[in-house]
Amino acid sequence: MKLKNADLNQIIIKRTITVKPDSSLLEAREVLLRHNLKRLVVIDTKNKPVGILTEKDIAKTIYALGDKPIKSVKVSGFMSKNLITVKKTDTIYDCAKKMKKNHISSIIVLGKNGVLEGLVTKTDLASIFLTHAVSPLKISKIMTRNVITAMPGDSLLYVESLLIHNRIARIVVQRNRIPVGIITFRDFVPAKLPHWIAESADPKEVQQYKMKGMADFNVNQMSHLLHFKAVDIMSSNPITVDADEDVGVAVLLMIRNNISGIPVVKKSKLVGIITKSDIVKAIAEA
Predict the structure, then answer these.
(1) What domains sit in the chain, N to C, each tagged with a CATH number?
(2) 199-235: per-residue pLDDT in tens?
(3) Which one of 22, 109, 278, 282 is separated from 123 by 20 to 30 angstroms, measured CA to CA?
(4) Residue in 187, 189, 122, 123 with CA at minimum distance from that of residue 150
């Protein structure tokens, strides 16, 4: 995927939301939710990056807490410390290649003396396709054909194990090869309101469930979720795209709906999935 302009400076996110290493897991989660983010850069007192954490890191940490109180968990204890970075003078191609090679969703941009300059995400690279792609490209050319799926009646334990063991960010829920839902790690942070509560509880009970959040979660309290099914937390009626459409159509749908992957169909049947990772890969291999 050739670009008209590969200057990295045009897509660097200047105002990067950060946290400190001694912030708690709950504080980090609150920042993620408040700013509707999927990742945070962890910086030291000199504004130098020392780690990065994602909503996936939070989900995995809660999953493995055991009897440890969630309030005692600090960001420094579960952040990713093996930072992949680029320089401000590098190109978009350099950025895409590093993201593809290291299987990461964002990359830290460093300025002089290793100070945080900004952040580049897969969304930024996908957006570049809309304005800088030299020629059209069909979704079928770059989509992932091997799709990990679940059924509406599968347990949440099984769905979560698919996400973790396959190192993927989303599961397509299908029935008779027709996509009927999507489940991502965000649906576990915190878990969405199960449909049985939404349908039967009064408004006060619904609000109490939402407000409770994860403040006193531990594995024992979380275990009740394992009795629920995929249908309880999935986003129903997922957006889909046809395999013969242009990649630009998929990018627009992702940006407008704040999603990172879309099931690809042919005559309503699931044939693949296109994600921002597929677009990054196409740029990296240009």
Answers:
(1) 8-132 (3.10.580.10), 139-189+229-284 (3.10.580.10)
(2) 444 444 444 444 444 444 444 444 555 678 999 889 9
(3) 22
(4) 187
